[in-house]
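Quick one, T. Sequence first:
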Amino acid sequence: MKRCSILLLFIVLSMVSFAQEVARPQMWGIAKMTFLVSNYEMAREYYGRFLGFDVAFSYNSELGTVLSFKVNDRQFLEFVEDDAAENKQRLISYSIETDDVEQMRMYLQQKGVEVPEKITVDGAGNEVFLVHDNSGVPLEFIKLTNRSLHKKSKGKYLSDNRISERIHHAGLYCDEVLDNDSFYVGILGFKELWRYPENRDEKVMMNYYQIPDCVENIEHYRTNDKNFNHPCFLVDDMQETIYTLKERRGENSLGRPMVGKGNRWLLNMKNADGTKVEFTEMHTVR
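Structure tokens:
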């Protein structure tokens, strides 16, 4: 009888534990990347006139006014002015969209990740919280609420001059490139899309992790430059992209196209602060 009581207690406790288990909510892609910039005039010149993105709105944050450039209805590049930006780590955060920010916070807390005590509402009206990955890169989880400036801009500020209509991936600095990162793979469920070298008997130098519920991804690359963090824009035709940028460049510098390790055309450039932007074609070199 005593053994039956102990077994019943064990079953009950197991059921309670199972009931309290928090599932990971879905993730819908890269919502935005936010950087320090030396001045807003340079941001308007580089990301506005040169790259062709419209300023959609601005809003207040703890770091200062946020100037938001629109890539598409769900993706944005945002900037906070800091006259010492050139000498600082410029990525403020990259943001992944999720349907339930509080559930994500609870899920990560359950997994032992250091999270804030509660979610907050940012100056644009979105529900957010911030964590850091294993290399200290700031990752924000965000729910773009219907009352937010981002959602209210739907269908607006979509310039025909945009050099790209989508952020393909976020390139991220890391201390060490791993085949199975304990944070992204082990906790968040990202999946490795591709690694270099592809031979698993060799030490991985670069890899791409798919965000689980969509087709966007992050790139991990080991470098001494913590300002490696960058958006990578998708383009249909690299030659046309280069020619368009050549015609618009003014005082801005152009990079040289190259075929990357994944056998795709790439173009890398930097603004006056040294903050990188990258372009890639969807298809491999033909």
